[in-house]
Amino acid sequence: MAANTFGVAFRVTTWGESHGPALGAVVDGCPPGLALDEHDVQEWLNRRRPGRAPSASPRREDDQVEILSGVFEGKTTGTPIALLIRNRDAASHDYEDLRDVFRPGHGDFAYMQKYGIRDHRGGGRASGRETAARVAAGAVAAKVLAPAGIRVFAFTRELGGIAATDIRPGEMDRNDLRCPDPKAAEQMASRLEEAREGGDSLGGVVEIIVQGCPPGLGEPVFDKLDADLAKALMSIGTVKGVEIGAGFEAARMKGSQSNDTLGPDGFGSNRAGGILAGISTGQDIVLRAACKPIPSIGREQQTVDVFGKPVVLAVRGRHDVCVIPRILPVCEAMVSIVLADHLLRQRAVGR
Ligand SMILES: Cc1cc2nc3c(=O)[nH]c(=O)nc-3n(C[C@H](O)[C@H](O)[C@H](O)COP(=O)(O)O)c2cc1C
């Protein structure tokens, strides 16, 4: 069964490929009466564009969104919202020599095994460009969350093995990598330059914080909030791991260290990351997504073509050196979509 739709009450379907005429999303289940126009969505898309960050692809993605349905006189109508983004800067000829070759680390080999046919231009549906549709849908989800006082933001926690440790709120708005530790941001930028010059790429860790989430969101036992958040983040290309709260570190703690004690004023700490038994507790939700290095690299690598013949490949074309910071709004969008879904589902519970 195909799976291009995500969510239960707030449902997002994405469609389209990297080098087709357009891609987009259909959002179904958005409540009526919310103020929404193209500028609201455009703001989100602009943050996903290849910008000035040293990790960015030289591809100039215009990413102008058109809202085709579901909005009347600036307000959502409760009917499906169709969001369209035309692909205007797709240099498909760059990919001609990849027609029969599998790029190491990319979806080429796996797509061929599954479908027996693939769009080699940019990776088709496995392209990072598919995430533009998610970001557009995330902008709509944020409109559902805002009246409930829920705010989602992401920042760069780690890049190329350099971790942000001296966290200064507000600092992430001052550098292109959206890293709240200014010294670490400088080191990350020079590591990216080194990688670019060496024809290589880097990975990193995104941290996502949800503020103002009410207690009670999440549907035991299979649609627990943490389960849905992990799925939402893992469904983004390059994401290889998700942590919630103390995450993998919790496995190395004792119960006395890992438990968040409770007192009359609430919790004494937040190692659970704002979720217990799959249900939000009212504390901040803290998530981290580990992103692998971008697969398309200029360095020569061993691979095979569709006939099994060995090929030495150096990928040309316009690629990001690191998925950070472009993936930050994608993570924010996926987390916002999950929360909008669970907020509406909790309203249906009626408590
Ligand atoms: C925002 C974004 C941008 C991306 N840009 C590129 C790129 O320029 N070149 C590339 O090879 N992969 C890029 N990727 C990664 C591929 O989409 C991803 O590695 C591929 O789909 C394989 O999936 P996997 O990494 O989850 O195994 C990007 C991903 C995202 C989310």
Tell me what the structure shows.
It is a single chain. With 351 residues, the protein is of the alpha+beta class. The chain is 25% helix and 22% strand. It contains 7 helices and 18 strands. The strands form 6 sheets. The protein has a 5-stranded antiparallel sheet with strand order 1-2-3-7-4, with helices on one face. It has a 5-stranded antiparallel sheet with strand order 9-8-10-16-11. The protein starts with a strand and ends with a helix. The mean pLDDT is 95. The site of flavin mononucleotide has 21 residues, from helix 7.
- SS strand fraction: 15-25%
Q: List all distinct small molecules, including ions and cofactors, that are bound in this structure.
A: flavin mononucleotide
Number of strands: 18
Order of helices and strands: EEEHEEEEHHEEHEHEHEEEEEEEH
List the main descriptive attributes of the protein structure presented here:
alpha+beta, five-stranded antiparallel sheet, 18 strands, globular
Précis, in short:
This protein is α+β, with helices and mostly antiparallel strands.
Topology overview:
Blueprint: E1 5-6, E2 11-16, E3 22-28, H1 38-48, E4 65-67, E5 71-72, E6 75-76, E7 81-86, H2 108-115, H3 131-145, E8 151-159, E9 162-163, H4 182-197, E10 204-211, H5 225-234, E11 239-244, H6 255-258, E12 262-263, E13 266-267, E14 275-276, E15 279-280, E16 285-291, E17 301-304, E18 310-313, H7 327-349
Antiparallel strand pairs: 1-2, 2-3, 3-7, 4-7, 5-6, 8-9, 8-10, 10-16, 11-16, 12-13, 14-15, 17-18
Helix pairs in contact: 1-3, 1-7, 3-7, 5-7
Bound molecules: flavin mononucleotide.
